[in-house]
Amino acid sequence: MSVFTPVTPEALQGWLANYAVGRLVELKGISAGVQNSNFFVTTTLGRYVLTLFETMERSELPYYLHLMAHLARHGLPVPAPIADRDNDYLGSLSDRPAVLVARLSGASVMDPTPEHCARVGAMLAGLHRAGQGYGRRQDNPRNAAWRAATAAAVRGFLPADERELLDDEIAAERERDDSRLPQGAIHADLFRDNVLWDGDFIGGVIDFYFAGHDALLFDVAVTVNDWCSDADGRLEPARRDALLGAYAADRPFTEAEREAWPAMLRTAALRFWLSRAADYHLPRDGEMVLVKNPDEYRDLLRLRREPQAPLPA
Q1: At the fourth CATH level, which superfamily is domain 114-304?
Q2: pLDDT reading at 3 higher than 90
Q3: I need a labelling partner for 105 at 20 to 30 A (CA). Which of 186, 198, 200, 258 fits?
Q4: Are 62 and 89 within 8 A, CB to CB?
C-alpha cells in the first residue's frame, strides 16, 4: 500500500462530491505495502480507505470489488466498497482507477498466539465457503504462469545457488497438476498485517487485490507460512495445528490436498520470494515505496523443502 501517485485534498474533495459520504476532513498516505497508492480518508460522516490502482487493468478490478461486497454480505469482516451516486464502485482519480472502501476497526497482531491462529483458520474456512457462491471468476494473478515468467525475469540477478533453487522449484511445479484440488475464490495474501484485531476477535480482513480463482490449499499454505512461522522460519507446531485444525473443522481437507500439502507450502513460499525479488531487482518509482527483503522467503522456501507434518485427517 505505498503511495506512487499523490492526491491533493482539493482533488479528493472534488471527487468525493459524487459520493454521499460528507466532506473531507483529513487525507493521509499509507506507506505499508508495495502495489497500489493508498490513503486514509476521514470525512464528516465516516472513515474510509482510498486506493488508486497503479498496475492493474481497469477491466480486472470489478472482480475484486464485487468479491469484497459479496463476502461482506455474507457476514465476513471485509471492507465493503462504497458506491458513488451512479451506483458504481470504481471511479477515476489522478488518472488512475480508484475505489473508496469502509475503514475497519482494529490493529494487526504481529506476535500471534495459537488462539489467534485458530480464529484465522476458522475465518479463512468461512471465506472459502462463502466464496463458493461468488459468480465471477478471475485467475490468481500470481499463479503458476506468473511464477514461471517472474522466475525468468529475476533469474539473472541471482547467485548460482539461488538460480539452482529457483530452477528446481519451477521444474517441480511444472510437473504438478493442482486442478485436482478444490478450487475457488482465495485471498492469496492473508499475512498478519492484513488482519485487524478488535480485542480477541477479528475486526477486519483487508487487501484483497491479489485475490483470484485458484486451489484453496494455496491460500491455506500462504496463511500458514506467515502466521505459524517462528523467528527462524520453521513452522511452530502449536500455532500450525491450531490454524489447520480450526480450518478443517469447517472445511475438511481432501485426500488430494493432504498429498499436495508439502509441495504447496513450497509453492506459497516461492510466490513471495519471487514477488519480493522482482520488487527488489526491478523496482518501480514511487513517492513512498516499501520494498521487502526477498531473502526471508528464499530462506523459508529452503526450510519448506524439509519434511513437513501432515494436514489434519
Answers
A1: Aminoglycoside phosphotransferase (APH), C-terminal lobe (3.90.1200.10)
A2: no
A3: 186
A4: yes
